[in-house]
Amino acid sequence: MTVAQTEPSVEHLLWLKDQRCKLLELALSAVHPAGGFGWLDEAGGLMEDKGVQLWITARMTHVAALAALEGDPRAAVAVDHGVTALESTLKDHEHGGWFAAVDGTGVANTDKRAYEHAFVILAAASAAASGNSRGRVLLDEALQVFDQRFWRSSDGLVVDVWNRDWTDLEAYRGVNANMHTVEALLAAADITGNLTWVDYAAQIVERVVHRFAADSCFRLPEHFTQAWMPLWDYNIDVPAHPFRPYGVTIGHLFEWSRLTLQVRTALGDRAPAWMLHDAISLFQRAVAEGWNVDGRDGFIYTTDYAGTPVIRDRLHWVVTEAIAAAWALHEALGTAEPLALYYEWWDHAKARFIDSCSGSWQHELDPNNLPASTVWFGRPDVYHAYQAALLPSLQSVTSFAGALLQP
Description:
This protein is α+β, with helices and mostly antiparallel strands. The protein has a single domain (10-402), classed as Glycosyltransferase. 49% of the residues lie in helices and 9% in strands. The chain contains 13 helices and 14 strands. The strands form six sheets. It has a four-stranded antiparallel β-sheet with strand order 1-2-3-4. The radius of gyration is 19 Å and the shape is globular.
């Protein structure tokens, strides 16, 4: 691809549109007969016996809602299917909130996790934006649970995992749940018009990015005590954990960079100057210590706190977040360098990850760029790839659904 142009070509935008259509087809194939959306295997087939997980159902509902906002006639039914699952099978009608997972025998995991609850907010906001008649009620309920159970105004951050009846809170604190909370709150603000949610998102970004990341040379620690002191050795014995890996997660540096820019857009004239600087710093750290650092092309998964590679497998969501962050930084700066990286990383994704026929993404490659399953099995997620393929078509993004609602 040429990088001489400052905006994507019509050809490139049409290719991105085709990728989104194929990713939506995968989401539709994940519809689970028990309700919600299930786990897909390497061939894109539904693994019914793995049950229904909250994070997958919420993400698939969100993606379907974005497709519905773009006018895809197949998407509205999928949105309704997801909303129904969030209203029924995945919801804890006794204690409130949502179960982490259900299966054929009933509730498989009763944990109430901030990570998954953030995606319920996101799914509900996008569903409401797409015109689903029950989306706004679901959104209001999810925001109430969030505000009562997960948000800590004294910290400017969210707590992580409760038990079913909200009587036992895990001592662990983490920034992954906070990151997805930022995304969810920006969507909630766009749909409800309540700027309180933007202020909450800004508080999270200030604490995580401008303090935790900046104080660590933008090698962001992910894991903390309940007093928000870093747990530097957390999961050092299981470094490839899919949600709580040891060390610095390269993809999250990109994701925080993009979200910081989206919060900056939402704040407008109120945005502090440090937001642009810190977004650039996160991006630069991720590129310097994540891209092509071990003699092979691609992004590694994690490093230690000195920048040394730990898990060298290549995960699809990392390159998609790199692509999205490069585009967001290009939009913020108007310069050619992030745009050149944007195209370079799309070329890498096409060569290594994307099935050109089905549009499905190989979720993980080993350090030699061969299919692997050290961290992930199958292909359960289209959310990261769909958003990366959508972002260049939008203007002034605070949230994806909010941008699609703009005239």
